[in-house]
Structures are given as structure tokens and as C-alpha cells.
């Protein structure tokens, strides 16, 4: 296979490291698209346990448990993310499971305690995704204040600083605007391994505030679905913030993957998903998320330029363009890697069938293309990412 042309390799990502893959856990009803198309996916535990085992045997490194606290926009039922994540961890052997949590609905010290237990029980496979929040009603229905956009990210940054302190220090102290911790000692702590000193901390958000925060405190930055130009811009901004803080942040990209034997088949699936969209739910979701991001200081909040078609997949996953034959998708995945992406977070229409198809048909082509990356690129990338001491 021939590699597609690409921009110069990213200095924040080592091309010598294999791409990692994660999948969205369908612990919320309605699947990963707001559409009335048939979805052979179930939000219950038995289905998800089978899926988790299948995924770790088909090349997936991580699973991300979604979080919704109340029925909304095509998601009528939802299992809580941290407890569901622990259940999946105990059902698997290698898969790392990321639990999505909201500052404002969680106290960092309480989450730290839960995370330490989950990490001990899973032998170091627990992770967390700190979600600043887009759904105002989830906060107000529980009597919690709804902060404006940049304040939500300021709270999230303080939340992560508190979480890391409790996980790594014997007498944690924090005097913040949102959280106060006084001489708090957590025992047992999560595992400290050569791979990571504490559970990995992921973070989402597309805004300027989110990018700057990721550089200062997060281990991973998740982006909504993006094309090549969008990815390049975000990696540049996050890297600049991380460089200023003397840190390294890895980059994850959301994508909805439709792999079929022919491109025409894959395109027809996408056409049918959009044609059968739950119009009312998509418009409601669009109004909610645009309201949440509109108050960003510079107007660059998430979903601000999303079309109706984009919003049929909650996180703009169609934009990443992982739609076509296994060969087309593998080439596009590696092209994203060459631009600095370290991890692909994937959603599917029919999970069990498509995760297995990905592992059998797409992933081997990705690894083949990675092996063909020019030695000059590998050397340059490897030299550019010498380990930097992390600091919060």
C-alpha cells in the first residue's frame, strides 16, 4: 500500500509509537447516532460486557463510558459511567476504561477515592475523562449552578489539579475558587506504574479555553470530529500551551467509522443514517450545545459550526471522514497520525459486527502503513518527543 501525502510530522507525537484505539461505550440508549435507522447495539450490561471482551481482542486499547444524567435528545436511558466502567474493567484483562465525569456534579476527592479503588481492582487500567459540560438542564434539575463557558473550564482545571494532588500526594492541599482540600491523605492510592504515575486524565472541548487548559493540566486532549486542517490547528494550540508549561499532552480524535467492502456501500449507510435522522432530537441537541458553547470568550465553543448532518452524530464524528473501504479508512487514519493524532476514539452503528470487522480488516492495514512510514519521519518525531517531566 502507498502512503498518502501528509504534512510534516507533529513534534508532539511519536510516529514510532503505534496508534491507539478507543471506542465509545454504548451505555446510553439510542446508540451513537440520533437516527431511526436500525442499530444492532444495546445499552445494557450483558451486551457491553461481550463488546468489551471483543474489543480488547480486536486491537482496542481503551473504552470510554459516556455520561448522561437524565433523558435527553434520543438518549432515554443511561447507565452511570463510573460504576459501568468498573464493571467493564472487571470483565476484561487488558482494556483500559475511561469514565466520563462532570466537575460540579462530582467532588474531586470523592472521585479520587472511587478511582483509586477501581484502579487497584483493575491492576492499573482505570482512567477518567473530565467533561466540563454542555447540558444545562442536568445541572439546574439537580439544583446546581450553571456556570458560563470559560468558568466551567476554570472549574475543570481546578478539579484536575485537585484530583492529581489527591492521587499523588500524602497530604494534599488546595485552596481554590471552587474546591478546598486540607491535609487530605488517600490510601490506598491508585497504582504508580512505569507507564503512568496515576490514572490517565483525559479532557474534551474544542474552545480556546479548553485547548489552553489541556496544555496546562491534562494527559490527553479529546477533539470532536475534525478534518485534517481542523486537527492541525488544534494540535498546534494545545502543543503551544503544553510547551509553555513544560508538559506533553497526547491527542485523541473522535470519528464515526463506517467500513464496508465497497465505498458505495459505506456511503449508502451514511446517507441512510442522515435520511432517517430523528429531526426533533437533532434540532434540540443542536440548540442545547450551541447555547452551551456560545458564551465562550471568543465564540469558538464546541459545535458552533456544526451542520445538521454533523449533529446526527453527537460529536461530529462524520467530519473525520472514516467512511469507505478498509483500505481508504486505513490510509486516512495513518494520515491523521502523521499530523499528530495519537489515538482514534471510534463509534459504530452495529458495534459487535463492526468492531470485529475493524480488527480483522482495517487494523492490519493500519499497522502495515505504520511500518512503511519513512525512517526519517520516525527519527525526527522520536527526537522531538523526548520525555518531559509532567507537572500540574
TrEMBL record:
GO terms for biological process: alkanesulfonate catabolic process. The keyword Cell inner membrane does not apply. Keywords: Flavoprotein, FMN, Monooxygenase, Oxidoreductase. GO terms for molecular function: alkanesulfonate monooxygenase activity. It holds the Pfam family Bac_luciferase. Residues 20-342 form the Luciferase-like domain. The keyword Oxidoreductase applies. This is Dimethyl sulfone monooxygenase SfnG. Gene3D superfamilies: Luciferase-like domain (3.20.20.30). It comes from Streptomyces corynorhini.
Amino acid at each position: 500500500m502507498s502512503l498518502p501525502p501528509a504534512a510534516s510530522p507533529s513534534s508532539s507525537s511519536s510516529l514510532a509509537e503505534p496508534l491507539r484505539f478507543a471506542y465509545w461505550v454504548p451505555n446510553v440508549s439510542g446508540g451513537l447516532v440520533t437516527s431511526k435507522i436500525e442499530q444492532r447495539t444495546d445499552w445494557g450490561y450483558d451486551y457491553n460486557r461481550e463488546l468489551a471482551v471483543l474489543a480488547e481482542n480486536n486491537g482496542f486499547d481503551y473504552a470510554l463510558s459516556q455520561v448522561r444524567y437524565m433523558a435527553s435528545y434520543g438518549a432515554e436511558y443511561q447507565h452511570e459511567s463510573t460504576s459501568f466502567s468498573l464493571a467493564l474493567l472487571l470483565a476484561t484483562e487488558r482494556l483500559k476504561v475511561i469514565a466520563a465525569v462532570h466537575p460540579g456534579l462530582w467532588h474531586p476527592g470523592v472521585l479520587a477515592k472511587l478511582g483509586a479503588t477501581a484502579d487497584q481492582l483493575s491492576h492499573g487500567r482505570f482512567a477518567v475523562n473530565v467533561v466540563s459540560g454542555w447540558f444545562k438542564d442536568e445541572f439546574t434539575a439537580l439544583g446546581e449552578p450553571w456556570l458560563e463557558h470559560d468558568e466551567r473550564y476554570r472549574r475543570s482545571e481546578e478539579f484536575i489539579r485537585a484530583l492529581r494532588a489527591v492521587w499523588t500526594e500524602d497530604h494534599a492541599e488546595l485552596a481554590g475558587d471552587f474546591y478546598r482540600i486540607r491535609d487530605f491523605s488517600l490510601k490506598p492510592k491508585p497504582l504508580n506504574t512505569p507507564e503512568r504515575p496515576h490514572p490517565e486524565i483525559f479532557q474534551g472541548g474544542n474552545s480556546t479555553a479548553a485547548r489552553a487548559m489541556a496544555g496546562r493540566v491534562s494527559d490527553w486532549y479529546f477533539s470532536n470530529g475534525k478534518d485534517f486542517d481542523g486537527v492541525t490547528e488544534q494540535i498546534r494550540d494545545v502543543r503551544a500551551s503544553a510547551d509553555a508549561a513544560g508538559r506533553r499532552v497526547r491527542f485523541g480524535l473522535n470519528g464515526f467509522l463506517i467500513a464496508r467492502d465497497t465505498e458505495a456501500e459505506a456511503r449508502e449507510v451514511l446517507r441512510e443514517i442522515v435520511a432517517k435522522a430523528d429531526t426533533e432530537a437533532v434540532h434540540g441537541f443542536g440548540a442545547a450545545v450551541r447555547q452551551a458553547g456560545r458564551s465562550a470568550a471568543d465564540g469558538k465553543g464546541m459545535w458552533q459550526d456544526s451542520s445538521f448532518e454533523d449533529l446526527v452524530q453527537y460529536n461530529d464524528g462524520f467530519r473525520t471522514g472514516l467512511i469507505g473501504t478498509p483500505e481508504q479508512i486505513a490510509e486516512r487514519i495513518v494520515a491523521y497520525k502523521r499530523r499528530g493524532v495519537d489515538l482514534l476514539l471510534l463509534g459504530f452503528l452495529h458495534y459487535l459486527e463492526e468492531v470485529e470487522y475493524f480488527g480483522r480488516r482495517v487494523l492490519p492495514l493500519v499497522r502495515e502503513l505504520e511500518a512503511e512510514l519513512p525512517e526519517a519521519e520516525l527519527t525526527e518525531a522520536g527526537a522531538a518527543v523526548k520525555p518531559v517531566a509532567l507537572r500540574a
